[in-house]
Structures are given as structure tokens and as C-alpha cells.
Specification:
By secondary structure, the protein is an alpha+beta fold. Helices cover 43% and strands 28% of the residues. The strands form three sheets. The chain has a four-stranded antiparallel beta sheet, with helices on one face. Helix 1 runs antiparallel to helix 2 (38-62).
Length: 156
């Protein structure tokens, strides 16, 4: 059995953005309780709205953090917060493909981040599962094991 290992930076990203958004929300709440001029009040409301949007976005992303367990005949995707498990059987895999994800650009020709490849698993009922090297420390091991399981099933 192979169990996925989260990259430290992947988890740190969520912790950082949650801490920043909560800090800004608390600061804004404190400022709103003060006697502010009209301009300061509008600025504080705008900052509060931005902080709330960031908080909601990160919170939704946290609900998609998944752990992967590769067993002999199936792959389990466990949503960490809800403990909900999605299982796909290796025999139900229609295809595995690598997709290039373009890095962020500030303007044409200037990259902020590098391009990378992620793996997309397509099942026979057309469900998609994405496995990204940005999330898992043992990404290569996970993909090799899935391919090995798939080849051993198709050989039988």
C-alpha cells in the first residue's frame, strides 16, 4: 500500500493564507469599532471585503485537500476534513494522461512560476481525478504505483 505524503509547502500555503485573512478580518473589525472618518470607513470596508473573500476562497480550497491510498485493486481519495472517501478501482480506469499546466505570467514572455505536469486519471464513467506534484512529496512514487497496478490488471 502506498500512502500519499503532503508537501510541507502545500500545507504551509493554506496555514499562511488563513492566518493572513483572519488577521486582516480582526484588524478590520477593530477599526470598524473605532470612530472613523468616511474615507477611512470606506477603505476599511473594502479591506474587510477583500479579507473575507480571501478567507472564503482558502476555506473552500481546504475542503479539497485529499490524501491518496493506493491499494492492490483500488485507489482511495480521502478528503481530509470531511473524511469522505472516493474509491476508484484500477479496473475502472480508462486512461492516465499527463497534462502540462502553464505557469503564471505577469505579461507575455515573463514567467512568475514554472510550467509543470500533472496527472489526470479518467475512469470508465468519465470521472476525472487530478494528481499534482505540487501537492504530494511522493508524486512520482504514486504515479509509478498506479501505472504498475494498471499494467498488472491489464496483463491478467
Amino acid at each position: 500500500m502506498i500512502v500519499s505524503k503532503f508537501r510541507d509547502l502545500y500545507i504551509a500555503k493554506f496555514v499562511f493564507f488563513l492566518a493572513v485573512s483572519i488577521s486582516f478580518l480582526l484588524i478590520c473589525l477593530y477599526l470598524l469599532l473605532q470612530d472613523l472618518s468616511k474615507e477611512d470607513f470606506i477603505t476599511t470596508i473594502a479591506l474587510s471585503f477583500f479579507s473575507l473573500c480571501l478567507f472564503i476562497y482558502v476555506l473552500f480550497e481546504v475542503f479539497y485537500i485529499k490524501k491518496i491510498n493506493i491499494l492492490e485493486k483500488r485507489i482511495e481519495f480521502l478528503i481530509v476534513l470531511t473524511k469522505k472517501t472516493k474509491t476508484i478501482y484500477v479496473s475502472d480506469i480508462k486512461s492516465i494522461s499527463r497534462e502540462k499546466v502553464n505557469g503564471l505570467s505577469s505579461r507575455p514572455g515573463v514567467k512568475i512560476s514554472d510550467d509543470y505536469f500533472q496527472t489526470k486519471i479518467l475512469t470508465k464513467n468519465n470521472s476525472e481525478f487530478i494528481i499534482s506534484p505540487h501537492e504530494y512529496e511522493n508524486y512520482v512514487e504514486i504515479i509509478k504505483e498506479i501505472n504498475f497496478r494498471l499494467k498488472s490488471i491489464s496483463a491478467n
